[in-house]
Design a protein that fits this description.
Blueprint (H helix, E strand, L loop, with lengths): L2 H15 L9 H11 L7 E5 L5 H8 L3 E5 L10 H7 L8 E2 L17
Parallel strand pairs: 1-2, 1-3
Helix pairs in contact: 2-3
Length: 114
Amino acid sequence: MNNEIFNNFQRKLKQYFNVPPFLFAKGRIGLYAVLKAMGLGHGDDVLMAGYTCLVVPTAAKVLGIRPVYVDIDPTTYNISPDNLESCCTSKHQSDCCPTYLWNSLRYGPNPPMG
């Protein structure tokens, strides 16, 4: 990666979030680190979109976390808020794994994220 581009990106993240950023080379490594930092592990559940990339549940399974798939909204391909609410229990207070699948035009146009 071009160091100038990387350094500029890192500086902008630090300005925006007001904390030093930590960047991961791969999304699956970042997901693993975030789930582990949240203290989730063997026997825990995590809510995630039913329509997702293979590495998303894999990051959870490596830690012994059980993925609980939530149906998507067919117009946005994102987790349906109504379906998410119906899946939430006291066990799932903060265990939701939001991901952005549509990072390439080869899958089609980006759905609205609003």
